[in-house]
Each structure stands twice: as structure tokens, then as C-alpha cells.
């Protein structure tokens, strides 16, 4: 129903509301289905996508017959006809620098560690939007290969294992980070529910490797990739949360990447996730201790038969989930040539032990 504007003050109130709450959708949603887009994904961080009747600010405007139908469309969100609007929320003082990860905290105004797609057991497009591929370009042919993985911790910084950017291959040079990819054989990823935007290939400016990194022992196997331009956040590109002083107690880990897993002879075309138990360091010590040192700077995960990463997952994030939020507790460092053997876990860099180093070495955003 069309509403009549009754006064200048009313019009100004509406204009202010739209300016505050205007949606910024960057993907398409054909229909509402079981795996639906989490509504706050298409509203600014200062607003929330909620039912119209639940937004007191807009209710006041409606009571004064201020809203024209076309203007109400401008602040709607969710799928067409959902009755949802971007409602301004009180400003939060909890916006942090890169690496902040306490519950309710933000990275650059975005809630870290939250997939914008809902659905029990959903692992399709946008399920793990902080995982990126790291590309090496052939200086002779221009071909780009993606041998390892990283994670978005801010729009200009990707976290990975040090052995990845330092890898040497004839004629290949570290080149880009590819964000927003799910399937490797399509230009635009589409699922049953929605399509994402084209991938973002962001040139790498420089690499910051931990000064204590030891190639032969994988000690301090951690690095930051600083990008030349910012990653644009959206459904398929979001920052992950990093653990800090509070304790991550979950022993249920999730590894995400594009490599081969136990029993696979070819690398799948789609992003994979593995649910792995986080086990004691003693178990890794028994497997690797005679050849490689195991310390508190590492995390041990896996060891179940036919359930482990075998190749191509280097630098991939090991995640735990608390409520709706994911935290990165590890970076895949190395594993055994007995991939998928019972009692043989893989070793990860313990992210929690490097939070200070990450903070001190992550450039301030401009």
C-alpha cells in the first residue's frame, strides 16, 4: 500500500533511515530454500536483517505514514517478498584489529568466523568463506597453479604455513590469492540455492615469514601474505576468527581445502572438508618424535582410519565451531606418508601461540 509523506521531518527521518540501513547484496537468491542466506550478510554491519514489525525505528516511520513503497524496497533484504528489512542497530564499540576473536567481536566491521549460509550439514558454496587458494604463476606460460591454502584474517592479510610461499618450483613464482572459490572448474560457482560472484584474484604484495621458521623441522611454520588490494567481503569471502586469551575447548576439528584425502586418487574439483578429532600432542610425539620435534607450538589432529588430508592441503585452516562461530586453531603443517592410517594424525601450527606475532606483523588497514 502506498503511504503519504506528511511532513519534511518525516521525509528526513526516512532518508536518514535508508542511508543507515541500505542493503548491499552481492549475490543472487532465486528462492527461499532449506539452505538460506543468513540475512545479515546483505546488510551493513551496523544493521540487521529482521522482520519489518520487529524494527522499532521503521515502525515509527510507518506510524507516521512516511514510507513510500519504492523506498521500502530499497531497505529490504533477504529473498523477494520475505518482509525483512535492514534495521539499524546500536553502534558497537567492539570492533577490533585483525586477529580479534572473542565472541561478538568484529574484523573491519564484519563478524568473523560466521558463514552467511544456514542449513544443517550444509558444506556447499559459502559454507567456509574464509578459506582461499594460493597461486603460483608460471613466468613463461602464464599458467597459475594452486598448490596450497590459506585463510582470510583481514581484507589484506591471509594466514598460511610458511612452507607454502617459500616453496620452489622451476619457472613458478608466488603470485595471487584466490578468494571466493568453491569449485575449481567453473568461473562462477552455482549451487541449487544461489550463485556466487566470480572469484577474486588478489595480487600478493609481500610475505612475512616467522623469523624462527625452520624448514627441516617445520618449527614456527607460519606466514602472513600481505595483499596489494583488499578482498571484497561477501557470502563467499569472509574473515575467520582467531583464538586469543579465552580457551577453545572443543576437540572436534574441521579441515577445509582442495587437496586429496585418504582413498582419493585424483584431486576433487570442489572444496572439501574433513571432520577430525583434535588429539593429544603425545600421540603425535609417538608417531613423529624420533624424526621431528613436537612442541606446545603445535596441534595434533586426525588419526582415524581413511579420514585425513593426504596432499594439497598445506597451509589449510583447522577450525573448531562454537555456536555459530568458527575459530581457526591450527594451520596444516605436515603429515605422514601413511595418510589415513589408524593412529597416525597430522601436525598443525598452533594458531593460539602466535596471536601476538600475527597482531604485531599485520599491517594496519588504510
Automatic annotation (TrEMBL):
One of its GO terms (biological process) is proteolysis. GO terms for molecular function: serine-type endopeptidase activity. This is Peptidase S1 domain-containing protein. It holds the Pfam family Trypsin. Transmembrane segments: none annotated. Residues 116-363 form the Peptidase S1 domain. SUPFAM superfamilies: Trypsin-like serine proteases. It comes from Dendroctonus ponderosae (Mountain pine beetle). Residues 1-23 form the signal peptide. PROSITE patterns: TRYPSIN_DOM, TRYPSIN_HIS. Belongs to the peptidase S1 family. CLIP subfamily. Keywords: Disulfide bond, Glycoprotein, Signal. Gene3D superfamilies: Trypsin-like serine proteases.
Amino acid at each position: 500500500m502506498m503511504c503519504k509523506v506528511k511532513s519534511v521531518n518525516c521525509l528526513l527521518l526516512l532518508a536518514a533511515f535508508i542511508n543507515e540501513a541500505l542493503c548491499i547484496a552481492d549475490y543472487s537468491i532465486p528462492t527461499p530454500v532449506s539452505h538460506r542466506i543468513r540475512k545479515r550478510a546483505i546488510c551493513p554491519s551496523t544493521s540487521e536483517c529482521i522482520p519489518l514489525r520487529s524494527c522499532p525505528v521503521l515502525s515509527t516511520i510507518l506510524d507516521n505514514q512516511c514510507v513510500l513503497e519504492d523506498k521500502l524496497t530499497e531497505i529490504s533484504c533477504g529473498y523477494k517478498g520475505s518482509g525483512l528489512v535492514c534495521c539499524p542497530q546500536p553502534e558497537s564499540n567492539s570492533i577490533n584489529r585483525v586477529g580479534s576473536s572473542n565472541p561478538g567481536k568484529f574484523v573491519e566491521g564484519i563478524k568473523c568466523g560466521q558463514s552467511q549460509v544456514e542449513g544443517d550439514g550444509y558444506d556447499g558454496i559459502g559454507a567456509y568463506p574464509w578459506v582461499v587458494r594460493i597461486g603460483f604463476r608460471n613466468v613463461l606460460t602464464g599458467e597459475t597453479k594452486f598448490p596450497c591454502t590459506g585463510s582470510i584474517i583481514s581484507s589484506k592479510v591471509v594466514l598460511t604455513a610458511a612452507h607454502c610461499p617459500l616453496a620452489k618450483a622451476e619457472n613458478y613464482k608466488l603470485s595471487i590469492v584466490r578468494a571466493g572459490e568453491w569449485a575449481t572448474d567453473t568461473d562462477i560457482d552455482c549451487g541449487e540455492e544461489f550463485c556466487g560472484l566470480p572469484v577474486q584474484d588478489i595480487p600478493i604484495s609481500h610475505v612475512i615469514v616467522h623469523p624462527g621458521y625452520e624448514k627441516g623441522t617445520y618449527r614456527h611454520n607460519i606466514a602472513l601474505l600481505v595483499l596489494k588490494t583488499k578482498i571484497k567481503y561477501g557470502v563467499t569471502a569472509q574473515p575467520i576468527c582467531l583464538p586469543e586469551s579465552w580457551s577453545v575447548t572443543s576437540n572436534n576439528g574441521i579441515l577445509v581445502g582442495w587437496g586429496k584425502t585418504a582413498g582419493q586418487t585424483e584431486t576433487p574439483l570442489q572444496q572439501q572438508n574433513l571432520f577430525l578429532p583434535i588429539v593429544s600432542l603425545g600421540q603425535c610425539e609417538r608417531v613423529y618424535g624420533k624424526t621431528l620435534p613436537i612442541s606446545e607450538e603445535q596441534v595434533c589432529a586426525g588419526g582415524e582410519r581413511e579420514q585425513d588430508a593426504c596432499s594439497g592441503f598445506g597451509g589449510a585452516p583447522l577450525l573448531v565451531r562454537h555456536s555459530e562461530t568458527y575459530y581457526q586453531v591450527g594451520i596444516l603443517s605436515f603429515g605422514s606418508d601413511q595418510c589415513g592410517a589408524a593412529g597416525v594424525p597430522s601436525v598443525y601450527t598452533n594458531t593460539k601461540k602466535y596471536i601476538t606475532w600475527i597482531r604485531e606483523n599485520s599491517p594496519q588497514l588504510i
